[in-house]
UniProtKB/TrEMBL annotation:
Protein localization: Cell membrane; Membrane
Record SUPFAM superfamilies: MFS general substrate transporter
Name the record gives this protein: Peptide MFS transporter
UniProt topology in membrane: Multi-pass membrane protein
Entry's family note: Belongs to the major facilitator superfamily. Proton-dependent oligopeptide transporter (POT/PTR) (TC 2.A.17) family.
GO biological process, one term: oligopeptide transport
Transmembrane segments: 44-68, 102-120, 141-161, 167-187, 260-280, 296-316, 322-348, 360-381, 387-407
InterPro entries: Dipep/tripep_permease, MFS_trans_sf, MFS_Transporters, POT_fam, PTR2_symporter_CS
UniProt keyword rRNA-binding present: no
Keywords from the named record: Cell membrane, Membrane, Peptide transport, Protein transport, Transmembrane, Transmembrane helix, Transport
Length: 428
């Protein structure tokens, strides 16, 4: 276990990464909370087209990290990649305040995200000595940072955009990105040295072996997560549209802003994560450790159940009381906590030395493909009745659960061989 001073029982660097990520996610989810409403209400883009644009944008935001991860590992180093990427993203958010720059702004944010996104979580493992048991929970702690930013974003950016003008909300997102950059620069002394400079001398690229069985395992999981994402990503797309037209948002003190419902998911992540971590620690202490693929399969099945709930509500007739939408987010978030941070941690843990950012970027490739698929699935919102649409999303979640469950035996074999290889290496 590391001897460095800690904050909250973890290396101080984790707090820096946590806060940097929190503000980056604030900027991303702040803009995303407004995007589909801005396109359909301000720019008067048709729903089907807006869904495609939403899907392509979110897909590109998770495709560029594939290239950005390689650039960070081989050329820039993680620190430079984060600073350059974050600066580009901030510029893109401010561009969103000008309607003629709409498409240029989206492209700018996606490009900056490519450098920023894989470089930050790939530094987590660097904070811990080999065998430090705290690393197992570090990614769930990090994921809470994602959701604090995601919780604040709709409340601040969404409220500003919905009540005072969309451009105020986009401007607030840009400010959040700048805050994250300042925190990262201030906290450099708490981060490992390899996060500050590229590992490779200019002109010399190391020969890194990526084991075939690990590659196949990660590819199979990425495919299942792609299917899962095609349903999950509707939270910011068609589910957001349903919150506007299919939900009774009135309360005794007024009408709930439609963007506020997007704050429920990250709020619930913050509330649910501590008890779930306690349960998992107790199970691990009792020798009942659930393998990642099996845990992810359970999460996908729970998310499928959340969409079944929406389908049943539509069959019962609209509009539905807002409390049912809140219940949907409770179920969805519970499933999300089993699949998304688990998958990110698995990719980071199995990364070969020297390819940390690149392997984490491969996790976002699944998000890219799933977001692109979600955009296509979203076009069905205007073509079929809404109950059928929600049952379709449930089916996609169920298919992903079956795929992950089928991967479980292979994942077990790979993990056992990897542990065996580690023991042999340490013995030598």
């Amino acid at each position: 276990m590391t001897r460095e001073p800690t904050w909250f029982g973890q290396p101080r660097g984790l707090t820096i990464l946590f806060l940097t990520n929190m503000w980056e996610q604030f900027s991303y989810y702040g803009m995303r909370a407004l995007l589909v409403y801005y396109m359909t209400k301000q720019l008067l883009i048709a729903q089907g087209t807006a869904s495609i644009i939403f899907g392509v944008y979110t897909a590109c935001a998770y495709f560029t990290p594939i290239i950005g991860g390689v650039i960070a590992d081989r050329l820039l180093g993680k620190r430079r990649a984060i600073v350059i990427g974050g600066s580009i993203m901030a510029a893109g958010h401010f561009m969103m305040t000008f309607e003629p720059l709409f498409y240029v702004a989206l492209a700018t944010i996606a490009l900056g995200n490519g450098l920023f996104l894989p470089s930050l979580p790939s530094q987590i493992d660097d904070l811990y000595a080999p065998g430090d048991p705290r690393v197992g929970w570090a990614y769930n702690v990090y994921y809470v940072g994602v959701n604090i930013g995601g919780f604040l974003a709709p409340l601040i950016c969404g409220t500003l955009g919905e009540l005072y003008g969309w451009h105020w909300g986009f401007g607030a997102a840009g400010i959040g990105m700048l805050v994250g950059l300042c925190i990262y620069l201030w906290g450099q002394r708490y981060l490992p040295a390899q996060a500050l400079h590229p590992r490779v001398e200019r002109g010399a690229l190391p020969q890194v072996r990526f084991p075939r069985e690990i590659f196949l395992l990660l590819a199979a999981i990425a495919l299942a997560v792609t299917v899962f994402r095609s349903a999950y990503e509707q939270v910011g797309n068609t589910v957001a549209l349903w919150a506007d037209i299919g939900v009774d948002r009135t309360t005794p003190v007024g009408t709930i802003p439609m963007t506020w419902f997007q704050a429920l998911n990250p709020l619930l992540v913050m509330v649910m994560t501590p008890p779930l971590l306690a349960i998992w620690r107790n199970r691990a202490a009792a020798g009942r450790i659930e393998r990642p693929a099996r845990k992810m399969a359970l999460g996908a099945a729970v998310v499928a159940g959340a969409y079944v709930l929406l389908g049943l509500l539509e069959l019962a007739g609209s509009p539905s009381h807002w409390s049912w939408l809140a219940a949907f987010f409770v179920v969805l978030t519970f499933g999300e906590l089993y699949i998304l941070p688990t998958g990110l941690g698995l990719f980071a843990r199995l990364a070969p030395a020297g390819l940390g950012a690149t392997t984490v970027a491969a996790w976002y490739l699944a998000t890219f493909a799933g977001s692109l698929a979600a955009g296509l699935v979203g076009t069905l919102w205007s073509r079929v009745d809404h109950s059928t649409y929600f049952f379709l999303l449930a089916a996609l979640g169920g298919i992903a659960a079956l795929m992950l469950r089928a991967i479980d035996p292979f994942e077990r074999v790979v993990e056992e061989r990897r542990l065996h290889d580690k023991v042999d290496t340490s013995a030598v």
